[in-house]
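Renewal narrative, Specific Aim 1. Our central claim is that a sequence can be written position by position from structural information alone. The example that follows is taken directly from our test logs and has not been curated for this report. It begins with the structure tokens describing the chain, in the order in which they were read.
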């Protein structure tokens, strides 16, 4: 079992969710986050004053899936979240030792 964490641009969330649904991947946690990578923020004007926006709004997706679905999920996220511009995001894959469904007590892949 794996945990996929993807950091994407907020306006790409619906596209990514639809792409994951098309490849039959269900269950997703979404968190609004702020951060920066190579783009290091940008400068904006507000009421005539210039200020630096160090942390940009992003969306963090977390998906727990079976090992057999990892490549499919990565491909779906990559295609749906890609704009070709800096700041498209990153995907991280972690190994999951154990998963427990609270309602039924199921464990492992059955709990996914």
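The sequence written for that structure reads:
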């Amino acid at each position: 079992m794996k945990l996929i964490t993807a950091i994407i641009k907020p306006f790409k969330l619906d596209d990514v969710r639809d792409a994951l649904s098309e490849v039959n991947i269900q269950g997703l946690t979404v968190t609004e986050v702020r951060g920066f990578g190579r783009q290091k923020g940008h400068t904006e004007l507000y009421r005539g004053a210039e200020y630096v926006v160090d942390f940009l709004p992003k969306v963090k997706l977390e998906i727990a899936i079976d090992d057999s679905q990892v490549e499919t999920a990565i491909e779906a996220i990559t295609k749906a979240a890609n704009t070709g511009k800096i700041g498209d995001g990153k995907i991280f894959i972690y190994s999951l030792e154990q998963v427990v469904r609270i309602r039924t007590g199921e464990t492992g892949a059955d709990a996914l």
